[in-house]
Amino acid sequence: MIPLLRQRLRRDWLQLALWIVGAVLLAYAGYVGVTESYSTIADRQEVLAAVAANPVILMFRGLPSGTSVGAFLAFEDLPWLAMLAALMSTFLAVRHTRGDEEAGRSELVAATPAARTLPLLATITHGLGANLVMAALIAVSLIGAGMDAAGSWLLGAASGATGIAFLGIGLVAAQLMPTSRGANSLTVWLLVSTFLIRGIGNLAGTPSDDLSRIDSAWPVWLSPFGWAEQIRPFDENAPWPLILGLAFGLVLAAVATVLQSARDLGASFIAQRAGRATARAALSSPHALVWRLTWGSIVGWVIGGALTGVLATTLGGAAGQIAGKNPAVAQILERIARAGDLDEAMITVFFTMLGILAACAGVQTIIRARQEEAHGTAEPVLAAAVGRVRWFADYTIVATIAAALVVAAAMTAAYAGLAANGSPSELFRVVTVTGLGQFVAASVFTAVTALVFALAPRATLGVGWALVGVAAVLGMFGPLMGMPDWLTNVSPIAVTPVVSHGEVDLRGLWWLLMAVVGAGAAALALMRRRELASDG
After folding, report:
1. What does each C-alpha distance from 210 to 51, 138, 302, 435, 447 come to in angstroms?
2. What is the pLDDT of residues 252-277, one digit of tens each?
3. Cβ distance 306 to 314 under 8 Å?
4. Residue 152 to residue 136: CA distance in whole angstroms
5. CB 3.0-4.6 Å disulfide test: which of 123, 135, 244, 313 passes with 156?
6. How far apart are CA 149 and CA 171, in angstroms?
7. How far is CA 298 from CA 63, 271, 534, in A?
């Protein structure tokens, strides 16, 4: 097993370093933000009271457990630290199981005297080690900042236990699904679903009299994220929910081992759907082939965009009522959105999330081009009368259209929500300006990921998702964490045009457009001279 682990560490060290360092920086930045932006108990009490009164915020924040610095830090950061650990673990599990089978690596290992389940056991050990390192470094960073040691260790352990739970989910998904793409899609949907179940359990819970604490309802016990929050680091410091995450992950790992022993190499328990005997006329061009390969994931992002548009324009009334009782809500929203009016701020905040969704749609499409190249399936296309620039230009165009469709779905849903509420016409302009601005920001991610693909194809997946993750943290949480403006403005989603007090502020629009045009043109120019890198 040791040689396998060494080989995997050589393959994964950069990706794991990005995930782990990102989580540690998020934890430390959360501490800095809490101590600088919410330095008094009164400040934290106001925020928690606003959150307890607004179910929507509870869907995207942690579990209120008190007004201490540590409890407030756990409320702000724990769900996102757990999500980073979960994503790292599921991608690792699928990459070294179903992904290696698709690439032929598992067959090479099977040709040696190694036991059939040895690669799977190495993957389990690898995943456990990665989560242990992440948990320990999160704890050490908080202890170094001066936080209580017991709470710090439990906050790190809660993140790691969630990662281990999703490591098991990823291992089982890799046994069930016929492709790594299908396994990753299944795990991501399960991750999103359980994250929302956790939020539903919190918003259905019982708040304390001063609204600084919530006792969750029973649905939280259906989610690994809910188990992590019930530890309540820096408050109750209850370690026993850790057992649930660890046991769940290890039981699923054992199930995956049994399933691995019961199937042939390359087979799956969910059979791959057979294709048509003859292709449709719509598949008569390389551009149509790209659409055929990517439409499923694009539809998922479009649905997410539509839901974001609905939330952006149907929650203004509730936020207004809460802000009338507690001005902290308006201050928080205006700090993130940098908009003057509360309704404008609500739209801007949710459309910032929309920019991330649109960026994900574009980046995932570019990454699909890398997958086609790495797996060798791009070669038959390029063997025809299709040049490398034309082939990659099709992926870039589809990625841009995917981002546009996500934004268009959100804007359409937002317009419908405004019309149903009888909102003033000015808010329609806010939707238009912010929506188009976030499309430009999403296009920056598409163009930069395309440039990475042209320059360093093997880094496309890691760098592409890392750029989106860093931009999301800076753009969405930077203002709340008290980060300086220059650092927050590094994120494209933070410098898009907004409407404030009826005036359009173009902010960084021209810089964003220059980045899109420059990176996109450079990517296509470099593709003319680059050789295929089909060895993965």
Report:
1. 12, 31, 40, 38, 48
2. 999 999 999 888 888 888 877 776 77
3. no
4. 9
5. 135
6. 33
7. 32, 23, 25
DSSP of 268-292, one letter per residue?
A: -SSPPPPPPSS--GGGSSHHHHHHH
Alpha-carbon distance 298 to 266, whole Å?
27
HEC string of 185-253? HHHHHHHHHHHHHHHHHHHCCEECCCCCEEECCHHHHHCHHHHHHCCCCCCCCCCCHHHHHHHHHHHHH
Lowest mean pLDDT among 18-27, 230-239, 259-268: 259-268
- Residue indicated by tokens 């960026």: 359
Name the token pair of 356. 């991330």
Report the amino acid identity of residue 65. S
CA 266/CA 177 separation, integer angstroms = 10
For the segment 144-201, what is each residue's pLDDT rounded down to a tens digit? 999 999 999 999 999 999 999 999 999 999 999 988 878 888 898 899 889 988 988 8
CB 234 within 8 A of CB 153: no
pTM value is 0.76
**Three-state secondary structure along 96-161?**
CCHHHHHHCHHHHHHCCCCCCCHHHHHHHHHHHHHHHHHHHHHHHHHHHCCCCHHHHHHHHHHHHH
Residue 240 CB coordination number (10 Å): 9
What is residue 458's DSSP assignment?
Answer: G
Q: Is 421 exposed, middle or buried (0-12, 13-18, 19+ CB in 10 A)?
A: middle
Please tell me the distance from the alpha carbon of residue 357 to that of residue 351, in angstroms, as a whole number: 9
What tens digit of pLDDT does each residue of 112-150 get? Answer: 777 778 889 999 999 999 999 999 999 999 999 999 999
Q: How far apart are CA 399 and CA 450, in angstroms?
A: 10
The two most distant CA atoms of the chain are separated, in Å, by 72
What's the pLDDT tens digit per position in 498-535? Answer: 877 677 888 888 999 999 999 999 999 998 888 877 66
Nearest 5°: CA angle at 137, between 38 and 170? 105
Q: Which residue has the tokens 């410098």?
A: 495
Token duo for residue 319: 């936020």
Residue 119 and residue 171: Cα distance in Å, rounded? 12
In 10 A of CB 434, how many CB atoms? 30
